[in-house]
Amino acid sequence: MSESFPDENERLVAEQAVLVYRAVMEAAQTAPHGQGLACMETAVLDQGREHLRQILQRATTAQAQVQKKGGPVGAAGAAVPLAFGTVPPKR
Hints:
Layout: H1 8-30, H2 36-69
Helix pairs in contact: 1-2
């Protein structure tokens, strides 16, 4: 793969994002006068939901494959539980 996209899934997700952007731009260009924003929002919702569904599907498939291979190398540290009623310090 390339430096920009180390795996096929990242490349496909990027290409799909460009297609969503193009659909939004086309909606803006073909919208009736005064309807541009509404048409663009509709395109984002229609195309964006499908794009997000495909990202989720790819991510869950990739995660399932990692699980089958035994997971990442290295030990995970145990989380420190917070006591009820305490507030973490602001940063």
